[in-house]
Specification:
Elements (H helix, E strand, L loop, with lengths): L1 H8 L4 E8 L9 E8 L2 E5 L10 H6 L4 E4 L2 H12 L6 E3 H7 L7 H9 L19 H12 L1 H14 L3 H11 L25 H21 L3 H4 L2 H10 L4 H5 L10 H16 L16 H21 L3 H4 L2 H10 L4 H7 L4 H20 L1
Parallel strand pairs: 1-4, 4-5
Antiparallel strand pairs: 1-2, 2-3
Helix pairs in contact: 4-7, 9-11, 9-13, 14-16, 14-18
Length: 367
């Protein structure tokens, strides 16, 4: 059935695509559903039931077939991560709607506004790794791609009308290069938990021990850490520091049916934390800037962007991203040549904004 579907899809010049993953329900998330739509047909593919999805690779990489996604970056990253797919000729309806200046660009809002279709937001928390999926869940997944080609057609007309198609195409091409960046577990991540600054040394030592234990347990259970114990539960445990099962049972925020073995492990971890040396509070640093001049250039560029965006009728980050502004502030290109050498802007951005930015940075330098 998959091969027959691919044959039908490859006969089209435009194919709508979406994915669903189980990030809310697994420690190591994976793609659990892939949706395709072409005129007159919607297809749902179950990656958990098919061992070899490599035949899809040619479809995604084919420059002759335009693949339409909404908010494509995540889909591209997870499909490349899980299956090694490469992507050619992509159209992103979310990026396009922002580039033309539509005030709402979430898929649910666009479906309601343009097609009178209401989607159930509760489905966004579906466990897509569970089988069988409910008919309502399958319908929700189907709607994610069913209208994308029609939406793409409307956006394409407006991009051409506003002379922004080249800008959009360059942005789409950038998305095709998106890579999944695995973030290894950071044992010092407990410093980012809300309320940590109010804890004393012993409480911090217990929190650190509990934080590491939670991650080990999450991996063993293949569940996201927050589904094992919430941050609030960790803080409550390090503050109360229960020393017995009865005291542990009175701690708020713990799972109701926590196995006795896990309860005993918690008590052991708490005791180890009490015996540990308190962790040292990290020093606050701002790694983006090396000097005050760089910070001033960034603020100058940000103020320029804030004024430029309304003239284009878009949000500020559609003009240039914060990442791009940081790069320009650091490199300080004050001529056309150094702007090209910086690599901070693509060809369209240099043509549209280059002269303004160079002039701005020259004035900042002389001022």
């Amino acid at each position: 059935a998959m091969h027959a579907m691919i044959d039908r899809l490859t006969d089209q010049r435009v194919v709508a695509v979406d994915t669903e993953s189980n990030s809310l329900y697994a420690y190591h998330e994976r793609v659990c559903l892939i949706q395709f739509s072409i005129p007159g047909e919607d297809c749902l593919l179950d990656p958990l039931a098919i061992e070899d999805l490599s035949p899809l690779g040619a479809l995604f990489d084919d420059d002759r077939i335009e693949k339409v996604f909404h908010a494509a970056e995540y889909d591209v990253m997870v499909l490349r991560r899980d299956y090694g797919f490469e992507f050619g000729n992509l159209f992103d309806t979310m990026l396009a709607s922002r580039i033309v200046g539509w005030p709402r660009y979430g898929l649910g809002s666009l479906l309601k506004e343009h097609f009178g279709v209401r989607t159930d937001k509760r489905m966004q928390r579906t466990n897509w790794g569970r089988r069988p999926l409910k008919p309502s869940e399958l319908t929700y997944a189907q709607l994610d791609t069913h209208y994308l080609i029609l939406l793409r057609d409307r956006l394409l007309d407006e991009l051409q009308e506003k002379n922004r198609l080249e800008e959009a195409r360059i942005a789409f091409q950038g998305v095709t290069q998106s890579e999944w960046t695995a973030r290894p577990f950071d044992p010092d991540g407990f410093w980012r938990i809300k309320g940590v600054r109010e804890l004393d040394g012993t409480e911090l030592a217990v929190l650190r021990a509990l934080y590491v234990y939670r991650d080990h347990r999450a991996q063993a259970m293949d569940r996201p850490p927050f589904k094992v114990f919430s941050d609030q539960a960790l803080v409550a445990l390090c503050q109360k520091r229960p020393g017995s099962l009865s005291q542990l049972a009175r701690t708020k925020g713990l799972p109701r049916r926590l196995p006795v073995r896990a309860q005993k492990q918690l008590l052991e971890v708490i005791q180890r934390g009490i015996e540990d040396d308190p962790p040292k509070r990290p020093k606050r640093t701002n790694s983006r800037y090396t000097d005050e001049a760089t910070l001033q250039r960034y603020e100058t560029l940000r103020n320029w962007r804030k004024q430029r965006a309304p003239r284009r009728g878009v949000e500020p980050d559609v003009v240039l991203s914060n990442h791009t502004l940081h790069a320009l502030a650091r490199q300080n290109p004050t001529s056309d040549e150094t702007l090209i050498d910086s690599g901070a802007l693509n060809e369209w951005q240099r043509h549209e904004y280059g002269a303004e930015i160079v002039s701005l940075l020259q004035d900042a330098q002389t001022g």
